[in-house]
Amino acid sequence: MAEPYAYFKGEYVPAKDANINILTQAFHYGTAVFGGIKANWDEEKQQFCLFRMKDHYLRQLNACKMLNMHLPLNAQDMADITVEAVRRTGFRETVYCRPLAYKSSPFAGVKLHGSEDDWFVIATVLPPFSSTGGIRCCTSSWTRTSDHQIPTHGKVSGMYVNSALANTEAYQNNFDDAIMLTQAGHVSEGSVTNVFVVIKGQLITPPPSDSILLGITRDTVMQLAKDELGLETVERSIVRSELYLADEVFFSGTYADVVPVIEIDRRTVGTGEPGPLASKLREMFRDVVRGRNPNYPEWYTFMKP
Ligand code: PMP
């Protein structure tokens, strides 16, 4: 029977048997950095394609550096372990891999030094991010944590309280998700996604300095737009008015995919239907994550189960 698997403390075990002690520092203070990598199942070819896995692990290792974490593994070791964890699950559908590097010492205090660090990865399946026909968003009353408070270029676990507050506020107000602004009022990102807008044929996304995560899907979208459509993405600050007046708005993220946003703060975006550029990029993205675009062999790790 297929089941979620983990690599935990040097062994591959069913995820349900991988348990953490309640004294673990990261559990108390959010001193951990996580990742999210998809092993996309290709039904036709009966194989997985782990997408841009090395880039995900290089980003996680950069985040570890910012949190003063030292792991005895490099990106290639992590990638090899992840492939094996996916294999052990027995799933024949898209698998979501969740690596987590964390401060593992018991009661180590509120600090980053003097603790041991550990790393595990879970391979599991998740329900799809519901986005059929586009999603409806609000701008959040919660501003995005600034990079001078918690480094936003890494997926620092504690920072996700900010995303969770924004997401639940949106849900309780009957929206699908939230768009967070920076403290200066610039558009930053969704709760777990980067944001793009299309204005008069220009593809625009917030710059790294607007407290965003440097999303791997964001980078993929920018590369596909440039290479396949000849469209250079403009990285610049975006203000709230532009969200309301844009022809198209869409999200990007590993879990979410490319997701058209069709309404913001009860104002229709463009025609109220997924826009042509978002739809095209989504189609290209879905192709590339299955390893079907021959122009990007370095992005693919194929694996037969
Ligand atoms: N922003 C945030 C806050 C996220 O959590 C994510 C998901 N990792 C993203 C953006 C999208 O990043 P990626 O495309 O690398 O999944």
Q: Can you give me a brief rundown of this structure?
A:
The chain has 305 residues and is an alpha+beta fold. It has seven helices and 17 strands.
As a percent range, the share of strand residues is: 25-35%
Q: Sum up the overall morphology in one term.
A: globular
Helix vs. strand class = alpha+beta
Unreliable residue runs: none
Judging by the overall fold, what is the CATH architecture of the largest domain?
A: Alpha-Beta Barrel
Query: How would you state the average pLDDT, rounded?
Result: 97
Elements, N to C (H/E)? EEHEEEHHEEEHEEEEHEHEEEHE
Q: What is the helix fraction of residues, given as a range?
A: 25-40%
Helix tally equals: 7
Q: How is the CATH topology of the largest domain named?
A: D-amino Acid Aminotransferase, Chain A, domain 2
Folded structure, characterized:
- It is a single chain.
- The chain is of the alpha+beta class.
- Helix content is 26%, strand content 28%.
- α2 packs across α3 (75-89).
- It is globular and about 50 Å long.
- The two termini are 14 Å apart.
- 46% of the residues are buried.
Secondary structure topology:
Layout: E1 5-8, E2 11-14, H1 25-29, E3 32-34, E4 37-42, E5 47-51, H2 53-66, H3 75-89, E6 95-103, E7 117-124, E8 135-139, H4 160-172, E9 177-181, E10 187-190, E11 194-199, E12 202-205, H5 216-229, E13 234-235, H6 240-245, E14 248-253, E15 257-264, E16 267-268, H7 276-288, E17 300-303
The site of 4'-deoxy-4'-aminopyridoxal-5'-phosphate has 15 residues, from helix 5 and strand 14.
